[in-house]
Write a structure and sequence with these properties.
The chain is mainly beta. It has one domain: Immunoglobulins (Immunoglobulin-like, Sandwich). The chain is about 10% helix and about 45% strand. The chain contains one helix and ten strands; from the N terminus they run αββββββββββ. It has a four-stranded antiparallel β-sheet, with no helix packed on it. Strands 4-10-9-6 form a four-stranded mixed β-sheet, with no helix packed on it. It has a two-stranded antiparallel ribbon with strand order 1-2.
Length: about 150
């Protein structure tokens, strides 16, 4: 009898927990709600932030081994709500991201700079960084390329 009571209790906890899902996505270093509006109105698509990059790829060309090179990706919020970048995660420790931390209002621009350290690298290199934001989809990938020579 006790087992049945415990099983029913566990079942109710699972049901109640799943009903409490507020469409928040989590993953590692970020926790982004699908809602962009300050008042929590999820139904109004006009309040969504939209991140629009001039380009999502950049090629440095030839780089001498040991050089640090940087490129700033410029983006604009073309949506109706504030754009918030919660994290930018590079694919490798040789690439360091820096980004606009404050909310970007509709119509405003921001930057994400990727600094690549070519030390101990040789040949063709392709590195990426994932941008986590309150947009749909909430992940955008930026790519940098170069050929490292001695």
């Amino acid at each position: 009898m006790k087992i049945i009571v415990y099983a029913i209790g566990l079942f109710l906890i699972i049901i109640l927990n799943s009903c409490n899902n507020n469409n928040t996505q989590t993953g590692g270093e970020y926790n982004i709600s699908n809602s962009n509006s300050a008042n929590g109105d999820n139904g109004d698509q006009t309040n969504l932030a939209v991140i629009e990059f001039n380009s999502t790829e950049y090629n440095f060309g030839t780089v001498i081994q040991g050089e640090k090179v940087a490129h700033s990706f410029v983006f604009k919020n073309t949506g109706g709500g504030n754009l918030i970048i919660s994290n930018v995660k590079a694919s490798c420790g040789c690439t360091v991201p820096k980004w606009t931390k404050e909310p970007i209002k509709p119509g405003e621009t921001g930057t994400i700079e990727l600094v690549f350290d070519s030390s101990n690298r040789d040949g063709i290199q392709t590195k990426s960084a994932k941008v986590y934001s309150n947009t749909q989809p909430n992940v955008t990938e930026l790519i940098i390329r170069c050929e490292v020579i001695m």
